[in-house]
Amino acid sequence: MKACIVTRNELTQLLDRLISHVDVYAPVREKGTANWAKISSVDEVYLEAVNSREPAKGFIFPRCELLMRFDKNGNPIVPAPIQEQILFGIRPCDARALKVLERFFVQDGKSDPYVQRRVEKTTLIGMACNRTAPTCFCFALGNSPHDTEGLDLLLTEVEGVFLAEAVTEKGEKLLADLSPADETVLRKRAALKSKVESEINERFDVKKLQGKLPQLFKHEVWEVLSLSCVNCGACTFLCPTCHCFDVTDETMRGKSARYRVWDSCQFTLYSRHASGHNPRFDSSSRYRNRMMDKFYYTTEQVGLISCVGCGRCISACPAGIDIRQTVAKLLRIIDGMGK
Amino acid sequence: MSRTELLRKRANELLSQGVVKLVLGYRAGAQDNVAQPFFATTPDQTAELIFDSTCSPNIANYLLKVKNIGRVAVIAKGCDSRSIVVLLQEKQIVRENLYILGVGCEGVVHNGEKSVTCKACQYPNPVIYDEMVDAPVEKTTPGPQVLKADDDFDRLTPDQRWQVLSADVARCIRCYACRQACPNCYCPVCFVDASTPQLLGKTHNISDNMVFHIIRLLHMAGRCVECGACHRACPMGIDLMRFNRRITKIVRERFDTSPGVDINSPPALTRFLPEDSQEFIK
Amino acid sequence: MGLFFNHQLPPNWTQESIKVIITIQMADNSDFQPKIVAFLCNWCSYAGADLAGISRIHYPPSIRVIRVPCSGRVDPFFILQALQQGADGVLVSGCHPGDCHYLTGNFVARRRFAVLNDLLAFCGIEPGRVTFAWVSASEGERFAQLVKEVTEKVRQLGPNKKLIKEIPQ
Question: Which of B157, B170, B276 sits opposite C13 (nearest CB)?
Answer without folding.
Answer: B170
